[in-house]
């Protein structure tokens, strides 16, 4: 009996190893190269207040503003206006802006959330760049908490630092409101993030993150994932380059209208996490110095 159990254990280990090798080969073969940082001709311009075309700036230019806010939006006609009213109301109190306070970049094709944010980041003018979700789930004045988090990280190596908004402090409350199945998915995802990609950050998926201009340039120019799991790769890249990261608790409220389908979205993100790790391990993806947009 003991011999049979030993043989089964060896067989099981061999099958797991074979499966891992097979998955690694698939991850390597199917790995796409770095997504092209190419802008379509229509994406190089925005319309100013007079309806005239103006050329968008580049993140590799010198900053001309203190803060840029990048808000990805796709079919957000119901939630975006509320978020924008709150954000602009807050920013107007901090500093008066001219007619160029809002710029709309219309993408020729759907690049995914990560791809849309990257295009916005690459056209930003701020010394600091904030990414914020269109649903307004995080209260915009909490940007002050992120700014303090960045300041506390000083001195910044090569002027690079990141402050991540976090909902980890709300985890117990959210568990009480979720089904057991969704709670299990959440814990499974958190484990995979910790085990495969990012250590020390409890909430990688909060869409409220503040970057120094140099940190945004370095991380987004190395990003491969353009869909929902892009946050994880972004922080993986930041930790690889030893960019200091602060995780800051923010006020957060769940807003109806999420485009995530719980089971399938988590399954897709789980696959993305595994492939992120395997593709970097096998050398299919390599982290290089900052690339400029073509």
TrEMBL record:
Keywords for the protein's UniProt record, in alphabetical order: Endoplasmic reticulum, Glycosyltransferase, Membrane, Signal-anchor, Transferase, Transmembrane, Transmembrane helix
GO molecular function, one term: dolichyl-phosphate beta-glucosyltransferase activity
Pfam families from the UniProt entry: Glycos_transf_2 (PF00535)
CC annotations in GO: endoplasmic reticulum membrane
Cell compartment(s), UniProt: Endoplasmic reticulum membrane
CDD domains recorded: DPG_synthase
Enzyme Commission number(s) from the entry: 2.4.1.117
Keyword Signal: no
Listed InterPro entries: DPG_synthase, Glyco_trans_2-like, Nucleotide-diphossugar_trans
Metabolic or biological pathway: Protein modification; protein glycosylation
Membrane topology of this protein: Single-pass membrane protein
Any GO BP annotation: protein N-linked glycosylation
Location of the Glycosyltransferase 2-like domain: 87-217
Domain of life: Eukaryota
Record's catalysed reaction(s): a di-trans,poly-cis-dolichyl phosphate + UDP-alpha-D-glucose = a di-trans,poly-cis-dolichyl beta-D-glucosyl phosphate + UDP
Main subcellular localisation: endoplasmic reticulum
Keyword NADP belongs to the record: no
Family: Belongs to the glycosyltransferase 2 family.
Identification of the protein by name: Dolichyl-phosphate beta-glucosyltransferase
Biological classification of the source: Eukaryota, Metazoa, Chordata, Craniata, Vertebrata
């Amino acid at each position: 009996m003991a011999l049979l159990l030993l043989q089964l254990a060896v067989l099981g280990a061999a099958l797991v190893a074979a499966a891992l090798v097979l998955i690694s080969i698939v991850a390597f073969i199917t790995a796409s190269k770095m997504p092209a940082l190419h802008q379509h001709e229509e994406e190089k311009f925005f319309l100013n207040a007079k309806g005239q075309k103006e050329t968008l700036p580049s993140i590799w230019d010198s900053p001309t503003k203190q803060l840029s806010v990048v808000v990805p939006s796709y079919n957000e006609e119901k939630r975006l206006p509320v978020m924008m009213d709150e954000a602009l109301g807050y920013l107007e109190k901090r500093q008066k802006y001219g007619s160029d306070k809002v710029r709309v970049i219309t993408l020729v094709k759907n690049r995914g959330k990560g791809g849309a944010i990257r295009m916005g980041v690459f056209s930003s003018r701020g010394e600091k760049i904030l990414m914020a979700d269109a649903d307004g789930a995080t209260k915009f004045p909490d940007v002050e908490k992120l700014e303090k988090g960045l300041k506390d990280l000083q001195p910044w190596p090569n002027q690079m630092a990141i402050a991540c908004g976090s909902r980890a402090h709300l985890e117990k409350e959210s568990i009480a409101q979720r089904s057991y199945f969704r709670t299990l998915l959440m814990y499974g995802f958190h484990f995979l993030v910790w085990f495969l990609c990012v250590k020390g950050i409890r909430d990688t998926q909060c869409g409220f993150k503040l970057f120094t201009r140099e940190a945004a340039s370095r991380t987004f120019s190395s990003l491969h994932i353009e869909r929902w799991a892009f946050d994880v790769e972004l922080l993986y890249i930041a930790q690889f380059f030893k960019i200091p990261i602060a995780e800051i608790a923010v006020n957060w409220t769940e807003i109806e209208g999420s485009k995530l389908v719980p089971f399938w979205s988590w399954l897709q993100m789980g696959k993305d996490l595994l492939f992120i790790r395997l593709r970097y391990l096998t050398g299919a993806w390599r982290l290089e110095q900052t690339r400029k947009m073509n």
